[in-house]
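Contributing new records

If you add data, match the layout below exactly. Sequence lines come first and carry their own label; structure lines follow with theirs. Keep one chain per record. Anything else will be rejected by the validation script.
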Amino acid sequence: MPILQPYLHFEDLELEAVYQSAARTVTEADVVAFAGFSGDFNPIHIDHEFAKKTAFRKPIAHGFGVFCIASGLGVMTPLVRTLAMLRVNKWTFVLPVFAGDTIHCVTRVVTKELRGRGKRGEVAWYRGVVNQDGKTVQEGELVTLVEARPLAKTDVGGSPAE
């Protein structure tokens, strides 16, 4: 699906700039769908009777499922042309997320480094996943490859072509 809204290029991103995503409620359907997709049917996620006997007293959402939802929220805030996710430098699962919790992402530009002869750049992002109570449930740093503005073409003498 093409991005129809204007998006930021690598050059537009400022170090330490902070963005907040829209919120999204995690549903029981999300948990069941992730279990089916991933094959992770651990009873802590899908068995209400088992979960009653745990410290959480009810099923918790899969940590990586929440990570995936947060990834989707983060893709839109800020809206940049992401070419690839390169790595997750570190990630911490701080608190459980339950069906019915509403999460959003707080994203901050940590570092930027131009790559590919100026056609793209690596951006390291801090991302915090925050619940409806303002508590950080997951956080860490990930690195993406972001499109840069096209370079001006030069003529043989090295000056910009018209």
